[in-house]
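Regression test case RT-17, inverse folding.

Input:
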């Protein structure tokens, strides 16, 4: 009697949509069906260097690309594990190390009797380190792999974070915290690695949910400070805050290298092994046949960010990231100033009283201060939820534009002499939307750049954000002493321009798969394979509006 078995047939389109059905198949092999329309395509290089003729370079039953495999395998156990590990990097290597700045500064101000400018320099030096290293980490990730760049940056931050706890004098801790900032500059590469393993439909939501880990990390840091600072002091706080990085460093050995990067670098066998591993963990069938390798390119080249296709995207994104960090950290500083004064109208008189005091006068953080820090952090959750709800409905560009516009509008409303309760509401709404806009930028940036320059593009954008973070203390603290209203106009105007810049971005990535190559003809080939699939509409360029 012949043996019959039921096997799963995977049907997937080049657009990233996938569906599964159980059918009776006589043979014992999986069948892969790719829906598409024949088009005149450029030759595609295979593993042995041979080129497939144009007439055979379109989707067939025995060829697939990494994008097809990721979409066909879908979201499952592997992505859940990756989400937790990426979130741990975000919480321990980013949120906690940034949150500690607001706790460490007043403590050293009192303990070492530092003048105000030296206290401010402790914060600025971290941003200097991040700004100077962001592009470097992006280049390393494009040249040597996402996992490699991420592991080095985490170990770097762990090492210098622990050493910071043993700093004997101010000059030492200034240098060590700057080196910690240098390592933190590589954290955004975790988003690059994460995004390249996510199916299209889950990508935006998953990257946005990383913001939850940011909030968890900051809350954990504040709670740790409440327990450690009164008894053990700031040195132990620095050491204990770095220890979660050790856990992430161990878990890094579980992380696979990006299959998209392996394909681009010519390591086809490793990419296939990674895809098989994901399919096994998710309990999904692995597409059979030849894995098509995109034409190999030089990776991590700055000039690729300024090709005619990406020039305006890069410049506009740099300004958007600058405005995000400039406004976000500026709002954090302004919140403290406004709350101490009671309302905007009385802040000038409050400033005059402060000027009369000695510059070395200090106050240790109280339990009420830590409570305010917690409430400020929790205000970001509504922003994540709103962004999560609208980003796949109205698109990435409009989401960023809306976030900037709401922040700008709330800043203008602060011109009114409102009470403390209304002031709190306006500040929290503004922070919720600017943090949501920041996360929308983290979704958009990895999607808009091809694999060859994805990490570098995200790294340079992150570097521009640090420039904004460096400048904003001079506006939120120095300019505020001269004019409250001029300060608010600067922030409101900057975000209004950023909203316009978001609208003028030439590429909308909503509903678009991650691009494998920056070559124009390769991008056209990908569109030709997917743009005529049933039930899918796409513009002729695949991305231009």
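Golden output:
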């Amino acid at each position: 009697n012949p043996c019959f078995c039921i096997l799963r047939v995977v049907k997937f389109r080049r657009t990233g949509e996938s569906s599964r059905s159980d059918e009776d198949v006589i043979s014992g092999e999986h069948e892969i069906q790719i829906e598409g329309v024949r088009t005149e395509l450029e030759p595609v290089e295979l593993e042995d260097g041979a080129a497939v003729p144009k007439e055979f370079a379109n989707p067939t039953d025995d060829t697939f690309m990494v994008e097809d495999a990721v979409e066909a395998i879908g979201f499952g156990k592997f992505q859940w594990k990756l989400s937790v590990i990426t979130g741990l990097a975000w919480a321990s290597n980013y949120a906690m190390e940034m949150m500690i700045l607001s706790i460490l500064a007043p403590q050293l101000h009192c303990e070492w009797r530092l003048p105000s400018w030296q206290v401010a320099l402790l914060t600025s030096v971290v941003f200097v380190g991040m700004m100077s290293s962001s592009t470097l980490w992006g280049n390393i990730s494009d040249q040597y792999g996402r996992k490699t760049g991420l592991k080095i940056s985490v170990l770097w931050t762990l090492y210098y974070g622990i050493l910071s706890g043993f700093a004997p004098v101010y000059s030492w801790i200034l240098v060590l915290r700057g080196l910690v900032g240098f390592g933190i500059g590589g954290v955004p590469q975790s988003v690059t690695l994460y995004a390249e393993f996510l199916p299209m439909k889950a990508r935006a939501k998953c990257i946005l949910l990383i913001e939850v880990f940011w909030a968890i990390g900051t809350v954990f840091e504040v709670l740790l400070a409440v327990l450690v600072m009164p008894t053990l002091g700031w040195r132990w706080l620095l050491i204990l805050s770095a220890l979660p990085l050790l856990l992430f460093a161990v878990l890094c050995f579980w992380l696979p290298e990006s299959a998209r990067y392996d394909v681009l670098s010519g390591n086809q066998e490793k990419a296939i092994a990674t895809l098989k591993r994901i399919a096994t963990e998710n309990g999904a069938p692995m597409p059979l046949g030849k894995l098509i390798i995109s034409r190999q390119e030089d990776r991590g080249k700055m000039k690729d960010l300024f090709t005619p296709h990406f020039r305006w995207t890069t410049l506009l994104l740099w300004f958007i990231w600058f405005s995000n960090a400039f406004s976000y950290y500026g709002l954090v500083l302004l919140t403290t100033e406004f709350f101490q004064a009671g309302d905007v109208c009385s802040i000038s008189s409050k400033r005059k009283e402060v000027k009369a005091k000695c510059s070395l006068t200090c106050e240790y953080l109280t339990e009420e201060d830590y409570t305010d820090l917690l409430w400020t952090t929790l205000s970001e959750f509504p922003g994540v939820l709103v962004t999560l709800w609208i980003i796949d409905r109205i698109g990435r560009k409009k989401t960023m534009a809306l976030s900037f516009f709401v922040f700008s509008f709330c800043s203008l409303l602060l011109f009114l002499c409102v009470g403390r309760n209304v002031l709190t509401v306006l500040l929290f709404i503004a922070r919720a939307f600017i943090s949501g806009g920041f996360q929308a930028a983290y979704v958009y940036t990895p999607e808009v750049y091809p694999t060859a320059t994805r990490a570098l593009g995200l790294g340079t954008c992150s570097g521009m954000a640090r420039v904004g973070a460096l400048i904003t203390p001079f506006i939120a603290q120095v300019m505020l002493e001269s004019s409250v209203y001029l300060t608010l106009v600067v922030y409101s105007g900057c975000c209004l321009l950023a909203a316009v810049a978001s609208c003028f971005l030439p590429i909308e990535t909503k509903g678009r798969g991650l691009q494998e190559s920056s070559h124009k003809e390769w991008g056209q080939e990908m569109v030709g394979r997917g743009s005529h699939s049933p039930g899918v509409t796409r513009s002729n360029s695949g991305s231009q509006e």
